[in-house]
Amino acid sequence: MIELENIAYNYGGGELLSEVSLELSPGGFYFLTGPSGAGKTTLIKLCYGALVPTTGQLKMFGQDRRTMERDDIAQARRRIGVVHQDCQFLNHLSVSDNIALPLMVSNRDLLAEAVNLKELTNWVGLASRAQALPPELSGGERQRAALARALIMSPDVVLADEPTGNVDWEMSQRLLRLLVELNRMGKTIMIATHDLGLIRAAKSQVQARVLRISNRRVQLAGADL
Amino acid sequence: MNIDWTKVTEFFAGDTQADKVVPPTGYTAWLTLFSAGAMAFLAVFVLAFSFATGKLAEHWGADLSRSSTIKISAPQDQLDSQTAAVLKVLETTPGVAGARALTDDEQRALLEPWFGPDVPVDALPIPRLIEVIESSAGFDSDGLRLRLSAEAPGATLDDHTRWRQPLIKAANRLRFFGWMSLLLIAASVGAIITLAANAALVANKQVIDVLRLVGARDTYIVHAFVRRFTLRALTGGAVGMLLASFAILLLPTPQAEGGFLTDLGFVGAQWLWPLIVPLLAGCVAFVATRIAATRILRETP
Ligand SMILES: Nc1ncnc2c1ncn2[C@@H]1O[C@H](COP(=O)(O)OP(=O)(O)OP(=O)(O)O)[C@@H](O)[C@H]1O
Ligand SMILES: [Mg+2]
């Protein structure tokens, strides 16, 4: 799905990530962890093509990021559901429209997808908030809405950046169960988090691989987690 | 230029889904609407002004038939000899295409409005008139006057229509300024709409980021913004154009031929010109927003 081969990245200053090799394979469930500022969000952004690696090769669905046109990237993003760390909604549109946004921009027939949209909104427990505007939502509601938007296109890959950052333990368990359920449907999932409790909880439900960023490298964490 | 009309109709028919993604309000909306309206209003007036000066120049030019008159007032017994002398002088004057003494009948016709049909032309000591037709090069009237005074002391040259020449020049120059003003107005509309579009797009940077994040193509984003701004400029332009056209229609109708202010307006097919104004505003908005949107997208991965 997404392959990183010996990539390095910096924002113009010192190297933030280096010698990162990683492959997100179909049906895999990954956690990405590490201290704040380690580069989790950066790595996620590299994975959906928002950033270009300084060196090394990154492939999205077999295509080299460097040779991809802007339209190719747009096309690839329709196969990747992203839950952004700060959600990113269009504040003038209702929650329901925001969830449907990926359908709108890819010119899908919204009527044909109406049932799907409704089911998904119910599934994340936002049925009663569907007509609210994003700024009116609580932190947890925002994150569920962001997850729903990431899933509406039934993507092959879901990249979730701190999806449980703003929610209590109970809600984070619910979100996790949603993601595990998706993984069982065959989706590739990567969750960036520094919530070790969440990772432990996941391990009892799914075969998860834990990647840890430390010292600019990405390593597979051992059984100590 | 090859225009794909299906794309043009698609553009105006629009896509309500795509329209929704651009936030609806903001001061840039009013800025675009107002500036397009104000500029269209001005443009229509300047157009009318240009047509009026054009008409004026034409009007004066037509009056200025290339003919002058030489009047010979002399005692009855010298009249014929002086007439012959004048005709001879004219024959050798460069710039004169032809000359002819008016017949008694023609002179009587000229006098009729004042003295009635039964003027005894022969009995009255009225001057004889010679009509002089200029060639396109024109003659040197001072030189001709000098020679006439030597050959025929009773002859006077009347080239009264010549005084209008500088006026025609002025009218033509006014018309030129009119077209210049139109150009400047078009440029200002372009500048204002570009600024408004830029401001709107910068303010909506986050919207553009979100759209890219969820997989929108550049064309989708550009199209949504360009459509919004083009329609706004078209609407503003149309309102301005209609107001100006009404204002011009309401001007008093021409009283006398050649009046200047009262001639301000459009005649017949000239009314098509104001219709072009909002279209032009729309085109300017289209191009300006397109450039601005493309530029901002380049900074959005
Ligand atoms: N656009 C940017 N320009 C310059 N530096 C940046 C930019 N974005 C992030 N950084 C820096 O890169 C480093 C890694 O940021 P990143 O957001 O990837 O960390 P993170 O692991 O996601 O942290 P957190 O757990 O707090 O979300 C930080 O030091 C941050 O300040
Ligand atoms: Mg982060």
Automatic annotation (TrEMBL), chain A:
The protein, known as: Cell division ATP-binding protein FtsE
A single cellular component GO annotation: plasma membrane
GO biological process terms, semicolon-separated: cell division
Organism for this UniProt entry: Roseovarius albus
PANTHER family on file: CELL DIVISION ATP-BINDING PROTEIN FTSE, IMPORT ATP-BINDING PROTEIN
Keyword Nucleotide-binding carried by entry: yes
Domain ABC transporter: 2-221
UniProt entry tagged with the keyword Iron-sulfur: no
PROSITE patterns, per the entry: ABC_TRANSPORTER_1 (PS00211), ABC_TRANSPORTER_2 (PS50893)
Any GO MF annotation of the entry: transmembrane transporter activity
One of the Pfam families matching this protein, by short name: ABC_tran
Keywords (A to Z) from UniProt: ATP-binding, Cell cycle, Cell division, Nucleotide-binding
TrEMBL record, chain B:
Chief localization: membrane
Annotated ABC3 transporter permease C-terminal domain residues: 181-301
Keyword match Ion transport: no
Gene Ontology biological process terms from the UniProt entry: cell division
Keywords: Cell cycle, Cell division, Cell membrane, Membrane, Transmembrane, Transmembrane helix
Entry membrane topology: Multi-pass membrane protein
Location in the cell: Cell membrane
Coiled coil segments of this chain: none
Entry's Gene Ontology cellular component terms: cell division site; plasma membrane
TM annotation in the entry: 29-52, 176-201, 233-251, 271-293
Protein's recorded name: Cell division ABC transporter subunit FtsX
Lineage: Bacteria, Pseudomonadati, Pseudomonadota, Alphaproteobacteria, Rhodobacterales
